[in-house]
Amino acid sequence: MAKNKEMSVEDKLRALYDLQLIDSRIDEIKNLRGELPMEVEDLEDEVAGLSTRLAKLQEDIRTLNSEIAAKKNAIEEAKALMKKYAEQQKNVRNSREFNSLTKEIEFQELEIQLAEKHIREFKVKIEHKNESIEQTTEKLNGRKEHLEHKKGELQNILAETEKEEKELIKLSEKYGTDIEERLFTAYKRIRSSVKNGLAVVPIHRGASGGSFFTLPPQVQVEIASRKRITTDEHSGRILVDPVLAEEETEKMQSLFDKLS
């Protein structure tokens, strides 16, 4: 339908309701995906965080093992010095030299004790970190498995609906250009302000769709005559008569069936 200022009110109403049906179908597809994209993103972030934590724990253990190796080397060096000083004591010329070497030997003994203490502490830390690695790995594997499951769900839904959604978006854009700018702007404003995105609704049992307020008989007659654009004074939605709505729904459903 080409944009035309001479379009009748009825044509405008049909065009608006057609656009509403297209946009509602897009909403249905998005609702079908639901929270899945966000869940997948959250799980990906959690997996990345756990992987980083695991890598940090493993790096900490490597650092601690290096520290242990360094302390063991320090112990061997201290033992070598003690042996050297003990040999030197055999050739001292006086008690002062002997006592000085004795102090050096005692100092090296303290260094060995301190290094051994540090080694024990490092080993305890490694044990704790290994426990954390085990727990983190178990949690990471569980999250990875859950992520793959959710990705599979999302991919299946996308495979089923992605093509249809793209075609519907193109269709929505095309139908939007066929509606005069003033009406199209009003439609978008109403659609963005209502929870379910329904800007154009049929009257049902004397009330506008989604409303419990009965419309006056005169207003219902005006809507059925399709001579003017009528909006619901309570919700602001554009109203169409049920016959028009049924006709356009059948027409658009036939189109949707071809796209799906």
Question: What can you see in these coordinates?
Answer:
There is one protein chain. With 260 residues, the chain is mainly alpha-helical. It has 2 domains: 9-33 and 180-259, no CATH class; 36-161, Orthogonal Bundle (Helix Hairpins), CATH 1.10.287. 78% of the residues lie in helices and 5% in strands. It has a 4-stranded mixed beta sheet. A hairpin with a 2-residue loop joins β1 (200-204) and β2 (207-208).
Short note summarizing the structure:
The chain has 260 residues and is mainly alpha-helical.
Question: Secondary-structure blueprint of this entry?
Answer:
Blueprint: H1 9-33, H2 36-89, H3 95-177, H4 181-193, E1 200-204, E2 207-208, H5 217-225, E3 230-231, E4 238-240, H6 242-259
Parallel strand pairs: 1-4
Antiparallel strand pairs: 1-2, 3-4
Helix pairs in contact: 1-3, 1-6, 2-3
CATH topology of the largest domain: Helix Hairpins
Instruction: Indicate the percent of residues in helices.
Output: over 70%
Number of strand segments: 4
Terminal CA distance = 23 Å
Main β-sheet, in a few words?
4 strands, mixed
Structure class: mainly alpha
Strand content: under 5%
Mean pLDDT: 92
Tally of individual domains: 2
Uncertain ranges: none
CATH architecture of the largest domain: Orthogonal Bundle
Q: What spatial form do the alpha-carbon principal axes imply?
A: rod-shaped
What is the CA-atom radius of gyration, in angstroms?
A: 39 Å
CATH class placement of the largest domain: Mainly Alpha
Give the helices and strands as they follow along the chain: HHHHEEHEEH
What oligomeric state best describes the polypeptide chains here?
single chain
Q: What is the strand arrangement across the widest sheet?
A: 2-1-4-3
* Number of helical elements: 6
